[in-house]
Amino acid sequence: ADYPRVPEYKHLLACCCRETGPSGRKRGVALMRELVAEYPQAPDYVLDLCEALASGPMGPPRGWPGEGWPGPPPRSTSEGREAGMREAVQRSDVLARQYPNVPDYRAAHARYLADLGMYLGFTGSREEAEKAHKEAFDQQSALNRQHPDVPAYLFALSRYE
Q1: Disulfide engineering: 124 pairs with which of 20, 72, 107, 138, CB 3.0-4.6 Å?
Q2: How far apart are CA 52 and CA 107, in angstroms?
Q3: Residue 68 confidence (pLDDT) above 50
Q4: What is the four-CA torsion angle of 44, 159, 161, 65, rounded to 10 degrees?
């Protein structure tokens, strides 16, 4: 509040907010959106916006079958989560294409695809889930072939076996 023109302060606040639950995540996303709009030439702000959009619980939505629901969660429960994940996939794809020599952007894109695929599988969108997983696998495989000396990329690839 004392230094609103210092982007690093807003960035740190946004990163902290996204770790504090659903309401903090909303504030973190809003702050990241402001940063991306104000500094479109800063790719790390886009990446952190993607992280904020894609963050949240990864398991089946609350109340999944066995907890009183007979099937997929109501749309109102899943729409916001799914929309955030889809936006993270779209933005990270653009980022990875703009900066093809930054492998971490490509790795993040593959991770968001895999997470979206997992979520879609939980919600019953099997075909779309398989498509997202296949694309994530292809992306991660290419990244691993190009950088076989990076253990994190090999570890990420092991998620698919």
Answers
A1: 72
A2: 16
A3: no
A4: -130
Q: What pLDDT digit, counting tens, does each position of 120-144 carry?
A: 988 888 999 999 999 999 999 999 9
CB contact burial 5-32 (16+ within 10 A = b; e otherwise): eeeeebbeebeebbeeeeebbebbbebb
d(CA 137, CA 144): 10
Torsion angle, CA of 54/55/57/60, rounded to 10 degrees? 0
Out of 13-22, 66-75, 78-87, 109-118, give the one with best mean pLDDT: 109-118
Instruction: Give pTM, 2 decimals.
Output: 0.83
Q: What is the DSSP string of 64-77?
A: -TTSS-SSSPPHHH
Backbone angles phi and psi of 95, in degrees to 5:
-60, -45
Contact by Cβ (8 Å): 35, 45: yes
Rounded to the nearest 5°, which phi and psi values hold at 99?
-125, 70
* pLDDT tens digits for range 30-54: 999 999 999 999 999 999 999 999 9
